[in-house]
Design goal:
mainly alpha, 4 helices, 0% strand
Amino acid sequence: MKEFKQFLVNKMILFFMLTTGISVAIFFIGSAFDKDARFGYDALLVPAKYAFLCVLPTFVTYSRRELSIKMQIFRTLLELLLVEAVVLGIAFDSDYMDTGNISVTVALAASVLVIFAAVYLFAWFKDAAEAVEMNQTLVELQKQEIQKN
């Protein structure tokens, strides 16, 4: 149960990272394709809506047991495809994005890929730092145990 709790905490962190990344992507895509657009306050929730809906497909990577490398890669690619489908589906259903313009659609799909890669890269660095810290703690505990004996 503790592992699932940590998984959910990681998903909350992912939500906030995605909200930030999506906000930045909207700024750049909007600046490039529709500089004069103005939105109401309801538009402020769009990044949070996208982020929430993009977190849902990430549950395909959860497993109670250790996954093989092939299965982890498969689930990660499936996650990426599902996230792309969610974002493009929302965009095509929305009045905010000019999805009739192929450049906008390509920029949107590319931004999803960039944000996805950035999140995974951040997670990798975070996990690597935690592993170093755990190894240092283990070395200290071993030294203390040797000194006791």
